[in-house]
Amino acid sequence: MTVLEALNWATDYLKDHGTENPRLNAELLLACSMRLSKEELYIRLPGQVREEERKTLEGLVQRRGSGEPLQYILGHQEFWSIDLKVDSRVLIPRPETEHLVEEALSILANISSKKNPSVLELGTGSGAIAISLAKEVKKIFLVATDLSGDALIVARENATQAGVSDKIGFVKGDLLQPFHQGETFDLILSNPPYIPDSEINGLAGEIKNHEPLIALQGGKDGLEVYRKLISQIPSYLKREGWLLLEIGSTQADSVSEMIGTEGHFQKPECVKDLAGIERVVKAKLKE
Ligand SMILES: C[S@@+](CC[C@H](N)C(=O)[O-])C[C@H]1O[C@@H](n2cnc3c(N)ncnc32)[C@H](O)[C@@H]1O
Questions:
Q1: Range of the structural domain that residue 199 is part of
Q2: Band of the pLDDT at 186, cuts 50, 70, 90?
């Protein structure tokens, strides 16, 4: 079988199984099976595929055809230009979460007289957010938590791979439970689970059957984790500290209202993406 024939076979298989962008998926899976880049694959189109490469391709294409996310099969996902390892232990980091990183960087740049800011990320998953901040800010002290010990194993590996493991402490626990009163941070940020329980079933199979439910389920109204963390966070912020949260596309008003009602924060601000969708809510502690 030539490389071109293998590519056409994989494309047809994925098309028949309803995979979106079957050609691109086929290219990436074949390149992975042959340990080549996509560009190298195209130079080799007339060449032969070895038997073990064909078998590997068949396995990968079957997984993709049955709905497993491409990123889990390939084993990685780019976020903030960093190549992160991902598998079924962690949520695949989404491009919209880069807005949270942008906002965090702008807050950190404006924290007056802080040469070595301290930042806490709750629910780090693959480590995407904490690792991006550690790469961008020369002097920073980060703590990244997760309730899932499995996720923390992946996050630690990613931090090591990205060369920032000395800047991030990883801690297992439920929101702020691992921290003592008096342990305070300049910025606490999170992309918590925020899908209402009743909407989980309606999610695409790729998400609901493969990504960790603990990373998705936000309780009855999708706001349970926000409610808990907003009530806990004020005691863990330094003077003039910031809270920064990613939100679901319809949650800006509810989350802002929760922050307002809590009473310790100045008026929260929502940040929209380029399509005008509110993605992030930020609030500073009252003086
Ligand atoms: C939406 S995912 C975000 C992952 C990663 N920060 C990102 O943006 O790609 C939410 C993460 O929060 C973790 N999580 C859920 N409930 C938690 C809790 N009560 N305390 C700490 N982490 C929690 C999940 O395991 C998951 O890794």
A1: 77-284
A2: very high
User: DSSP code of 2?
Assistant: B
Q: 3-state class of 232 per DSSP?
A: helix
- Using CA atoms, how far apart are residues 241 and 238, in angstroms rounded to an integer? 5
Positive or negative: CA dihedral 208, 211, 214, 215: negative
pLDDT at 185: 96
Residue nearest ligand 1's atom 13 by CA: 123
One domain, residues 234 and 259: yes
Q: Please report whether residue 144 resides in a domain.
A: yes
Same domain for 253 and 131: yes
- Of 14, 41, 66, the last residue of a domain is 66
What is the 215 CA–ligand 1 centroid distance (Å)? 5
Provide the domain count of the chain: 2
**Gap between the Cα atoms of 44 and 13, Å rounded:** 21
Examine the fold and report which residue of 66, 92, 115 is the final residue of a domain before the chain moves on. 66
pLDDT band at 111 (very low <50, low <70, confident <90, very high): confident
Using the mean position of ligand 1's atoms as its centre, give its distance from the Cα of residue 160 in Å.
20
In this structure, the answer to whether residues 146 and 263 fall within a common structural domain is yes
- The model carries a pTM of 0.95
Q: Which of 53-57, 181-185, 215-219, 227-231 has the lowest mean pLDDT?
A: 181-185
Q: How many A from CA of 184 to the centre of ligand 1?
A: 20
Distance of CA 196 to the CA centre of its chain: 18
Per the domain annotation, does 72 fall within a domain?
no
Identify the weakest region by mean pLDDT among 109-113, 225-229, 282-286.
Answer: 109-113
